[in-house]
Amino acid sequence: MRFGSIFAAAAVLLTTIGAAEPTVVSNMSIAPIAIDHHLHVHAPEIVKFLPHMCNSPQMPEGCSPEFVKANTVEDLLAQLDAAHIRGGSLLSTAYLAETAFADPVDPDHASILHAGNAFTEAAARAHPDRLMAFISVNPITPTALPELARWKGDPFVTGVKLHLTNSGVDLRNPDHVRKLAEVFRAAAANHFAIVIHMRSERTDYGAQDVQTFLRDVLPAAGNTTVQIAHAAGWGGIDANTLSALGAFADALDARPSLRKHLYFDLAEVWDQDSSETDMEKLVVLIRRIGIKQFLPASDWPFSSDLATYYNQRYPRLPLSNEEWAVIRSNTAPYVPPRIK
Question: Which of 219, 238, 239, 296 is nearest to 263 (CA)?
């Protein structure tokens, strides 16, 4: 199955929306989720743009109705309330205005990008005790650095979201790597945390790409918190994701100091179709890296109902009750006191 061609976990996530969740029998006393570190709401400008992308020759299968649905910030807050979650990281989808999957490029891409980011910032401004805004850019476009500069010093912008798949970034292309490092450097100068969906369209994505990232990109972030989305994959567990996460585990074994700034979110990493064997392999890597490095995350709205997601799907991963209590209460260093 081809992943990542539409959005964060693309085909796997969108085809499981509305599917029956497995019944989970567990004696786990479910600890509350403090912060959901991976949430989305499309700006109206992005919703309006999506038909251009979804009807592009680059998207022969189009987009799922769930993907183009116009959810609201109020819908998100209602979901957080129902799941008893204090707040979360609202990751802009503005980068879709400059996606590699839209052909031709919309002539107004820069203004659509900025409007999408402005929507996300306004949501955090309106709900400062609940939401953190992460603007987004396509790191290999000429608009990336100017767009980052426009938000420098904004107290309601916590960070920047980068999506390598949708941006067409290839970590084996030296020019792409250089531009990505420039964006990391600019984000750090702005005191922005970074959330990065690392997985690319390469069918052999894995350890090699992580090694390039660790050597040539991550140092540009300095002491900035970097959150690796989907545990270094794009949703679901497969050999590519395990290879990538394994390379991170090797790096953290060799350089424990990386744990000060490097975190992994668990947005849609396993679902009802994940095998027990794959989940056990994932648990081994989580324990090697360290339970405190993993952040609760959903990828809402693509996770569907948050209470169901966290209370039924999450416990499928065979961690101990004590380990789950830690993960569910973990918060990234970038979470401001107004939300804690």
Answer: 296
Question: Could you identify the residue written with the tokens 């990391």?
Answer: 184
pLDDT in tens, 213-247: 999 999 999 999 999 999 999 999 999 999 999 99
3-state secondary structure 266-323: CCCCCCCCCCHHHHHHHHHHHHHHCHHHEECCCCECCCCCHHHHHHHHHHHCCCCHHH
Distance from C-alpha of 35 to C-alpha of 231, rounded to nearest angstrom = 17
> For the chain, how many residues are written?
340
The per-residue pLDDT for range 78-113, each reduced to its tens digit, is 999 999 999 999 999 999 999 999 989 999 999 999
- CA distances for 43 relative to 131, 251, 331, angstroms: 15, 37, 26
For the CA atoms of 307, 310, 311, 313, the dihedral, rounded to the nearest 10 degrees, stands at 120
CA–CA separation, 252 and 259 (whole Å): 7
Strands 262-265 vs 87-91: parallel, antiparallel or unpaired: unpaired
